């Protein structure tokens, strides 16, 4: 241990862990995932290829995430988190810098695989694993706060990248270079010098452990279900399906702009960007609110996230020509969007406990990555059908209803599982 004295009260080192989670979500996760789209057209045009040929790298990245997640779960459970997360950040930053020098499209495919392997632990596992290890209270709030910065990072860095792209015919090169340097400079100090795998490394108890101990009269220990046992339960498969479907549903947001543009000749057609921004604002705020609610009730979190999403879709579907209603609907859909990275890990923790959380959630996250791979293609196919947008909204509501059923089923059956310390 670096310190032997157990400290209580005052400023807790866990707050620096939360700051590290914010940095990871805001910088590498946001740049790699939320800012990728600004490069699609300029890079494809530069190399004289169709956008689909260039953006194949992003699909390769999603597939690499699926492959990496179970491996990452084992690595993060058995190795020093500081080393694992620093390596992931370094690969993301160096790969982005390398992309600024590429001379052929196939090179981006290799980069996509590397980005997928490095980003999977950062976006899916880093924040929940760190917060679960370091905090015994306000777990939901801290996870929601950190994950909100994936959207905030997109708001910050999309204009930065766009400005460099617009500066020259090959401005995308400088865009990749600058964003790669930002990933390294803004995140590595946190992963190298701040992050610790658990409070014991700093001679500390988890944040809130003293209050939990005072209430129970017992020492706070990590209890839960082993990954081996958890993966044989109906609750595990219910959460696996929840993760896939909620991620599939989240991607509906990408087609809000197309929905607005379908109302040609009206003011709604010019609101595509505003509606998408309203949804992003909704998901950022909802992640924090969702975390706070989950600290009180996981069922309440389900009701807030899914309920807001259903109301939002209904408003957008039934009153599309009312600009204010359309914006409100998009904002409310952000509640369901937030469920992907906040409700899913908190639902997993509630059902299976903290003991083997990283190994369990890494496998559940694979369903989310798979959902990301197929979602865009699925919804694009749906909206090209007759009455496609109406079908998209109807299916979105159905997805959310199914998610409520799956979540409640997992919570109910999870009560029967015996959580142990070993």
Quick overview of this protein structure:
This protein has 422 residues and is an all-alpha fold. The protein is built from 17 helices and no strands.
Please outline the helices and strands:
Elements: H1 14-34, H2 37-47, H3 51-78, H4 81-99, H5 105-134, H6 139-165, H7 171-193, H8 209-216, H9 227-230, H10 234-250, H11 256-261, H12 272-296, H13 298-318, H14 323-339, H15 343-352, H16 357-383, H17 388-414
Helix pairs in contact: 1-5, 1-6, 1-7, 2-3, 3-5, 3-16, 4-5, 4-7, 5-6, 5-16, 6-7, 6-12, 10-14, 10-15, 10-16, 10-17, 12-13, 12-14, 13-14, 13-15, 13-17, 15-17, 16-17
Structural class: mainly alpha
Described by the principal axes of the CA atoms, the overall outline is: globular
Along the chain, the helix and strand elements come as HHHHHHHHHHHHHHHHH
Q: List segments where confidence is low: pLDDT < 50 over at least 5 consecutive residues.
A: 1-8
| Helix percentage | over 70%
The number of helical elements comes to: 17
What is the CATH architecture descriptor of the largest domain? Up-down Bundle
Q: What name does the CATH topology of the largest domain carry? A: Growth Hormone, Chain: A
- What's the gyration radius in Å? 21 Å
Q: Tell me, what is the CATH class of the largest domain?
A: Mainly Alpha
Distance between the termini: 22 Å
* Strand element count: 0
Largest sheet: none
Q: Number of folding domains?
A: 2
CATH superfamily of the largest domain: MFS general substrate transporter like domains
% residues in beta strands: under 5%
Overall pLDDT metric:
88
């Amino acid at each position: 241990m670096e310190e032997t004295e157990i400290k209580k009260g005052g400023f807790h080192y866990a707050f620096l862990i939360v700051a590290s989670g914010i940095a990871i979500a805001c910088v590498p996760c946001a740049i790699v995932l939320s800012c990728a789209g600004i490069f699609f057209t300029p890079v494809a045009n530069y190399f004289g290829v169709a956008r689909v040929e260039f953006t194949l790298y992003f699909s390769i990245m999603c597939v690499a995430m699926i492959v990496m997640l179970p491996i990452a779960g084992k690595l993060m459970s058995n190795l020093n988190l500081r080393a694992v997360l620093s390596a992931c950040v370094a690969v993301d930053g160096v790969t982005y810098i390398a992309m600024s020098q590429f001379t052929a499209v196939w090179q981006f495919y290799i980069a996509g695989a590397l980005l997928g392997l490095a980003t999977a632990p950062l976006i899916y596992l880093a924040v929940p694993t760190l917060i679960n290890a370091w905090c015994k209270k306000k777990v939901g709030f801290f996870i929601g706060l950190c994950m909100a910065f994936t959207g905030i990072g997109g708001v910050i860095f999309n204009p930065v990248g766009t400005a460099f792209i617009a500066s020259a015919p090959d401005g995308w090169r400088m865009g990749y270079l600058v964003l790669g340097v930002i990933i390294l400079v803004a995140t590595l100090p946190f992963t190298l010098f701040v992050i610790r795998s658990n409070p014991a490394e700093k001679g500390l108890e988890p944040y809130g452990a003293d209050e939990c101990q005072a209430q129970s009269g017992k020492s706070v220990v990590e209890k839960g279900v082993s990954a081996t046992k958890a993966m044989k339960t109906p609750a595990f498969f219910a959460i696996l399906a929840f993760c896939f479907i909620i991620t599939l549903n989240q991607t509906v947001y990408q087609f809000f702009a197309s929905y607005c543009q379908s109302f040609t000749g009206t003011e709604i057609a010019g609101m595509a960007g505003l509606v998408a921004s309203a949804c992003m604002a909704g998901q950022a705020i909802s992640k924090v609110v969702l975390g706070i609610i989950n600290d009180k009730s996981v069922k309440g979190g389900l009701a807030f996230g899914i309920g807001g999403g259903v109301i939002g879709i209904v408003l957008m579907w039934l009153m599309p020509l009312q600009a204010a209603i359309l914006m409100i609907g998009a904002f409310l859909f952000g509640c369901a969007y937030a469920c992907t990275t906040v409700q899913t890990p908190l639902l997993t923790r509630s059902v299976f406990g903290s003991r083997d959380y990283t190994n369990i959630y890494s496998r559940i996250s694979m369903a989310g990555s798979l959902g990301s791979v197929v979602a865009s293609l699925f919804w694009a196919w749906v909206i090209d059908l007759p009455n496609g947008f109406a079908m998209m909204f109807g299916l979105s509501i159905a997805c959310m209803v199914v998610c409520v059923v799956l979540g409640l089923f997992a919570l109910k059956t999870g009560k029967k599982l015996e959580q142990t310390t070993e």
